[in-house]
Design brief:
globular, alpha+beta, Pyridox_Oxase_N, Pnp Oxidase, Chain A, F420H2_bilvrd_red/Heme_oxyg, single chain, Split_barrel_FMN-bd, 42% strand
């Protein structure tokens, strides 16, 4: 199993990459979340993300398929909304494991954000990798930045 880290730990290790990724996540309300169904096949769902203290989080309606998927198998992949398709900003992908937040912390979140139901799920997203893909300033190649807790941030160029 890959080592996981909090968003804050990621941001401390790769501040520029974290700044880019967060900007893309905050630029649009809806993103695409991939989870695993009971039979192991992928499921994609629309989701919203946010920050609660040092953590990247997502919420969902009570009993939603994505919440049930994450309870059963916490692995996820998150693709930030790519915007208008012009690639003016890098494409952002994040993978890791979702940890359900319950008890007093979940109740405090409900009080703070007022989701449609007090029984809404809250998940803290533990990060195992972050990747951005953008176009170079001179438009001649792709610039891929990839981070993992074990390897840190690396940059690749592809023509």
């Amino acid at each position: 199993m890959a080592r996981m880290t909090t968003w804050q730990e990621f941001a401390e290790q790769a501040p520029e990459l974290a700044k880019t990724a967060r900007a893309q996540l905050e630029a649009a309300k809806h993103h695409v979340l991939a989870t695993l169904r009971r039979d192991g096949s992928p499921r994609v769902s629309c989701t919203e993300v946010g920050w609660r203290g040092p953590d990247l989080t997502l919420g969902s309606m009570p009993g939603s398929r994505k919440a049930l998927d994450l309870r059963r198998d916490p692995r996820f992949a998150l693709h930030a909304n790519p915007g208008d398709g012009l690639m003016a900003s890098p494409d952002v992908k994040i993978a890791g494991q979702a940890v359900e937040v319950t008890g007093d912390e979940q109740h405090a979140w409900v009080e703070e954000v007022s989701p449609p139901s007090e029984d809404s799920h809250l998940f803290r997203l533990e990060v195992t990798e972050v990747t951005t893909t953008g176009v170079s300033d001179d438009q001649t190649h792709l610039v891929i930045q990839h981070w993992t807790p074990a390897e840190g941030a690396r940059t690749f160029k592809r023509r």
